[in-house]
Description:
99 residues; alpha+beta
Amino acid sequence: MEERRMEEKNRNSIHKVYINARKTAVLSGVRDVLSFDAAEVYLETEQGILLIRGDELHVNRLSLEKGEIDIDGRIDSFAYSEVDDTKKKAASFLGRLFQ
């Protein structure tokens, strides 16, 4: 029983990106939507923080339980950054501040 849960968790944590003609994107492995508007969609994924930039971006479907999101609009760029790097920088700054 426990093995099956771990397998399901691992299957849901795979991060995949499908882009069709720079007009639609389907992503899996999404943990959270940090913010979005017509020009940017800022996501936390299994592979780090993802910033999607474009024009007239719309979030058509969002399922955080499944870790999936569908985005339409003109997609100009995808940029990843590491989640751990952000946490380490914040921790080291606070550590230096209170020494």
